[in-house]
Amino acid sequence: MERYFDEDLCLSKESASRLARFYRWHLQQEIMPHWKALSLDTVYGGYETNFNENWERADNTKNLWAQARDLIMFSLMYEHLEPDQQYLDLIVSGRDFLTQYFYRGNGLWNYRVSNDGKTVLEGPISLLGDMFALAALARYVLVTDDSRDMPLIRETYDSVEKRLKDPDYPNIMPHVWVPGLERHSHYMLMVNVLDTAEEVLGYDLAHPLLMECVDKILYFFCGSGRDPYLLEYRALDGSMAAGPMGHLINPGHIFESMWFCLRVCLKGQDKRRIQRILEITDRVFDMSVDREYGGFFHLLDCTGRTAFVKADIRNRQLNWNDKVDWVNAEALYLLALIAVTTENPMDFLRFLRHHNYCQKHFCDAEHGDWITTLSQDGKPIANMKGTKHRCAFHLPRAVLDTYLAFETFSHRKSEETL
């Protein structure tokens, strides 16, 4: 299979078709086989999500984020590529375990349970986890037409909406609540959640909140003038918060956030917001790209100082300039989506360069999937395949969406060109 692409390549229906073929193959042959074969817990139900470098089980507890994210991804695979019994079994088992053992009532979800689900190890302490549960159940309904969870979906939606707008709500694991701050990650995720959930909740209920979140990202978290950054945290009045947290730029979250917003705005042909998204994207790409080695940095500080980092991989603190798989995977799809949207040769070149970088440095030819963390110069640092939050989600979703972007473009009629 053709893995690397000439950077002189022009975007056309033929080149888009070649890229689509590669990304479909990459997903089905190199990324998903282990997840598909090893994820189903045949004893207790739900998913095994914790794996070491050799795909051996590394932990025997179940986390809400990973269970919900896997349910989303397996549903997407069933919907778009492989509507087979094995994926259906995964989907049904994931939904059953999630609703039986993670739901706490009143729109709240447990964060971590024992492998059999009977012991709650961490209760409803993650607003983001509740959002993932909402998205997972909505996706399940769309894929299976099984609507029995609609009351649960509505209850979770009502609870999430209330807590999203409350900056004093403290249960935001794995983040640490600090008073007086608004958090980009919550509004970012809610855009993606509602882009799915409004199909089951209804446009009139969900769309106003969806667009409120889009505008919160584009015009509150991203400043203007002397403060043009999309910051991870802002003071309640929109100003730059004091201290290191107030300076933090999270490229991976911004890449996600921009493609979440772009897909929503493309549906409505909202040219004003689309232009704002493209401007923000150009700015963060310019700041976070590594011009010496390629790829995108993990975290940045808008003042130019070294960004503080609290993430930990196998007892090793990540550096701001490490290359992390999910960050670069999200960038890959955003670049692809922008390229097929604008058809600008420079946008397509930017995608091709990042594609070649990812295939050269991240692709794990020995174990499948991608290497999880690289040093700045591309040397492997960590390669745990499944952790509390790393599962069949960021990477396969990005690869699937990149495939769909080029596949759709390859069949686009000339009058549909944007």
Report on the structure:
The chain is mainly alpha-helical. The chain folds into three domains: 1-38 and 325-418, no CATH class; 40-177, Glycosyltransferase; 180-288, no CATH class. Helices cover 52% and strands 8% of the residues. The protein is globular, with a radius of gyration of 20 Å.
List the main descriptive attributes of the protein structure presented here:
3 domains; mainly alpha; 8% strand; three-stranded antiparallel sheet; 12 helices; 52% helix; 418 residues; Glycosyltransferase
In angstroms, what is the radius of gyration? 20 Å
Spatial order of the strands forming the largest sheet: 1-4-5
Measured distance between first and last alpha carbons: 30 Å
Overall form:
globular
Biggest sheet layout: 3 strands, antiparallel
Please, how many helices?
12
CATH architecture verdict of the largest domain: Alpha/alpha barrel
CATH topology of the largest domain: Glycosyltransferase
Q: Number of DSSP strands?
A: 14
Strand content: 5-15%
How many structural domains can be distinguished in the coordinates? 3
The computed structural class is: mainly alpha
Strand and helix layout:
Layout: H1 13-38, E1 61-63, H2 64-80, H3 85-102, E2 103-105, E3 108-109, E4 112-114, E5 120-122, H4 127-144, H5 150-164, E6 181-183, H6 184-201, H7 203-221, E7 233-235, E8 248-249, H8 251-267, H9 271-288, E9 300-301, E10 312-313, E11 316-317, E12 323-324, H10 325-342, H11 345-361, E13 373-374, E14 380-382, H12 394-410
Antiparallel strand pairs: 1-4, 2-3, 4-5, 6-7, 8-9, 10-11, 12-13, 13-14
Helix pairs in contact: 1-12, 2-3, 2-4, 3-4, 4-5, 4-6, 5-6, 6-7, 6-8, 8-9, 8-10, 10-11, 10-12
